[in-house]
Amino acid sequence: MNVRTHLMWDDAVTGYDFGPGHPMDPVRLGLTMRLVEAFGLDREVKVVAGPPAGDSTLRLVHRQDYVDAVRRASADPAAADEAYGLGTPDDPAFSGMHEASALIAGQSVAAAEAVWSGRATRAVNFAGGLHHAMAGSAAGFCVYNDAALAIARLLELGAQRVAYVDVDVHHGDGVQAAFWNDPRVLTISLHEHPRTLFPQTGWPAETGGDDAEGSAVNVALPAGTGDEGWLRAFHAVVPELLAAFRPDVLVTQHGADTHIEDPLAHLAVTVDAQRAVAAGCRQLADEHAGGRWIALGGGGYAVVDVVPRTWTHLVGVAAGRPIDPEAPTPDAWRHEVYARTRQQAPLRMTDGREPRWRDWEEWGYDPADALDQAVVATRRATFPAHGLLP
Fold it and tell me: Counting Cβ atoms within 10 Å, is residue 13 exposed (0-12), middle (13-18) or buried (19+)?
């Protein structure tokens, strides 16, 4: 297979900036791109800057009155309307908000167009993955839902089946809502249990609308889940469903906030497990989607220690040139990290863990284990709709 990988990047995406003290610090994007360049990955891919999403594209998911409200808040942040989720502590209005948000959305839509047309086999937009935005409101640091827009554009172009796998620590609620009753889209979200984390959705019983039963799949992981449990849950749910669904394209969201150091959540995953899931997604795209894979970023608020390494591994996996976990981070990058943040950068591309998990089919189900209980709840809720045994 002639693999061509696009990396969607425009320096202006760092203008998506909610201001000092907000967890969504755009430095995480700049430091990721600099780390990608430090490892020479930008020479292994085609770096592409897509155009901002226009109103007709944004309307594939969002209401026009909401787009108009974002534009008004962008021009005058003091006029932000909280009825649209704008001007809130999570989503403060800022000058240029519409332009920066539309640019990020445009990168994911351009990735979808490139992969569907065959100009690329894989595409990465680590600035994207803003999965909480709803049709008519901002939510959870997300203004425009680029993941849903990319999927909607794929459907508009003729895709019959699109699978979306979201491994962010937070439930992919906005994408699920956008395609709740659309059997052409399978959304799978692995996230911390809604009892303990925003947005308090993503229960196993959320399985899709009347016309799309089983199209929404939710794995609600117990707080404290680490590498072994996270990988066990992923491999116990995702591969069988993708094999049954047979998507034309796989879209994945790789929020780095599952990490044990993330300040906003309660899972205990390492960079090494996150790298393993990225590799797993690439393999699943090759096996079930003809190699067509669009990989997005997402959350992640340990902006120096975690996010740049996790997403650089993602780019390396997509490019077919994975970074050795034992590789030291380049000196020049560490100097830039300190210059920009006054923080010490991590020294290696690993957290020192070897990702392992107990295979579901081989080891079976432990009814006393909370992680296994979560997996079984999901399988029982959704597998029969796909002709699979729970």
Answer: buried
